[in-house]
Amino acid sequence: MTDLSFLHFNHCGKTLEDLTKQVESPQNQHVLLPAFHSIALKKKERTFEEGSKAIYRTALIAAIHSARSDIPNTLTFMSPVKAEVPSSASRDRMVVNIDCSSPKPEDDSENRTIQAVAGQLGMTLSPSQRKHFVSFKPYYSPNSVPSKASRVKTENVYSSKNRAGLSDPFVLPLHSNRGVFSPCLNSNNTRRWSDTGSYLRCPPLFHPTFIPGKTKRRLSEPLWSSHLDSGVGFIDTHCHLDMLYGKLGFRETFSSFRELYQSSFPPQFRGCITDFCNPRVMVKEALWEGLLAEDMVWGAFGCHPHFAKDYSNVYERDILMAMRHPKAVAFGEMGLDYSHKNSTSASKQKEVFERQLHLAVAMQKPLVIHCRDADDDLMEIMRKCVPREYKIHRHCFTNSYRVIEPFLAEFPNLYVGFTALITYFRATEARDALCHVPLDRIVLETDAPYFLPRQVNKAVCQFSHPGMGIFTLQELSLLKGEDMQTVLATIRDNTTKLYGV
């Protein structure tokens, strides 16, 4: 195979024999062309002239096919400028200069061949000069679905290999086995704005020059170039800064963290609510006091159902002491978890859950609820212990809409938290649920360090952090069909109503 991307065809300056010699030159024989633009030169089956014309004609078809979506029925030929062999990085998109302003070639049969090919495609050739962007990526028609292999590449964050490496009981599967494609998504248009470019006009967060733990210097080049009004911002309503710091080996302030990862903190970031849900670690590491002393950080305290078996009067006292802090805005996360990852018995979980609900209601603090595979028992306990008008955050919802619908009806001040899981195509249940939950009942959360957004490369940060909530908002905007300004303003208003921040 021979790469033709280095050729610049000249309809007037070179003969077909010269072009063929250029194609067959030794310096160009080592270049491999991607399979979707390959041309097999069948030297034994064709004459010299037929082979040359086949090369000329096939390259023309490729250029016409790539440009036909944005060229109004005109196409011309390239000027005779020698181009270098493109690197792998430049093959995705390159500029082709096209010129046909010089006199006719000696052999008019070449021109007739070209006109015939263009005629079959319903296009006319005119003597004008243009620049076209020719894509060297595989083409998907609007009604086709990207290959399974291409989707697997974008979903490497939650691959089985990575999940096994984390060995973390908090990690959720990428999709449910009950998944059914969302009826509210247009199956006839699988190529969305978020696939081909950011709705925020900011480039993907690929910055291989910095790798935490290996490179000392911080990310100095901003990766955000948003046209959004920075006066309207967002707050990450649920993250775990203590766990994030532990995974990254970070021991400094949150302001230092934002400076270190400034390229992935957009101007719209206004702060985060960090959740401390392991009483033993909360007291032992004592990170929460220093974090809550900083700007843009609030706290929530409780006992996660994974740690309910260790719940004691001592841990309860520590939680209540922390809840006295003026920036402690919620009680939790707490709840029920009947998944295989939790070794605590259901009876013990219910006991600890009810105990915390009574304390939270007595303190008049919003509830942060965790639930996995236990929705029936959760509803029964909440009806018994929680007033109907109480403020509730159903944290990290990943299930179907039919599961959350009864809670939305029963508790009018309940808000549903969605994470960057919705940025993954295979998270069909969560994406479908988001389409049905009203926008004024949704809050944003990253659940950092979990759920790294699909659009973010691990070279930026190995784990999710509060600034990456902008990607969840972007996906929410796309799925809801609302502009980003409306989404930002509504979600920000919901956060204020729920938490008062």
UniProtKB/TrEMBL annotation:
InterPro entries tied to this protein: DNase_TatD-rel_CS (IPR018228), Metal_Hydrolase (IPR032466), TatD-like (IPR001130)
Record field: transmembrane: none
Keyword Hydrolase: yes
Listed Gene3D superfamilies: Metal-dependent hydrolases
Keywords: Hydrolase
Pfam families associated with the record: TatD_DNase
One term of GO molecular function: hydrolase activity, acting on ester bonds
Keyword Hydrolase: yes
Family that this chain belongs to: Belongs to the metallo-dependent hydrolases superfamily. TatD-type hydrolase family.
Protein name per Swiss-Prot or TrEMBL: Uncharacterized protein
Source species of the chain: Mola mola
